[in-house]
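The material for today's practical consists of a large collection of protein records. There is nothing in a record beyond a sequence line and a structure line. Backbone structure tokens are a discrete shorthand for how the chain folds in space. Nothing more is needed to start thinking about how sequence determines fold. As an example, a complete record with its sequence and its structure tokens follows.
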Amino acid sequence: MTDATPDPAPDAPLVRHAHERGVTTLTLDSPHNRNALSRRLVAELHAALAAAAADDGTRAVLLTHTGTTFCAGADLSEAAQEAAAGTDAPTSGPLGLARLLRVVIELPKPVVAKVTGHVRAGGLGLLGACDLSAAGPGATFAFTEARLGLAPAVVSMPLLPRMDPRAAARYYLTGERFDAAEAARTGLVTLAADDPDTALEPVLAGLRKGSPQGLAACKALVTADVLRAFDRDTAALADTSARLFASEEAREGMTAFLQRREPSWVR
């Protein structure tokens, strides 16, 4: 399912860059597929994060989006094509997502997310990898994997150390949609605000005052548990994700989603 937005021009960037007073803004700009984590968008985001890390003038990265969706997770069109090709346990997708999330977490500069739209599935992993975040009243969140025959395997690594366990159990299992206030209550985001730009002003002002060394050292302290989860679980969770994506049940779930119908197991 995609927004009614034309495909981008072949040479149009899917990740846009801007810089102002120590903050590099990276904008996901692929609204035609709801900013899904396509191979191309992931590659551009890797490059943009590397450039920000190397820029002495950047104190923090602000990650935001165009369109009505921050990130819809995996590009199901790409995933369905790979599944239809009969590839056995394609770990490149899950491992690629794990690498991207780890880059965000290990970046020596704070990454702040500004969310004004929907976040689904793997997009929640990208959000959870960010150090700080603000979500507006138009933001909604849902772990939709179970409804597709999948599980939020790789994205659990940045999420489970930070979310309320009871909330994670409920939303992982039910796929219910929840709002910004609930996302803040559960620890998924830092702030729920009517105006995320205003809410982030003191946050970004504080980051601008931090020294590069101080910010990097402080970030290392608060991400240590998350990185331990990556060291321990990446291989196993990537295998789990790949196995689920390659299953007949997931093929049916992704096909049903793309065809806008209920999958065969719904009663």
Observations:
- The longest strand covers residues 15-20.
- Strands lie at 15-20, 23-28, 60-65, 69-71, 111-115, 118-120, 132-135, 140-142, 178-179, 191-192.
- The radius of gyration is 18 Å.
- DSSP finds ten helices and ten strands in the chain.
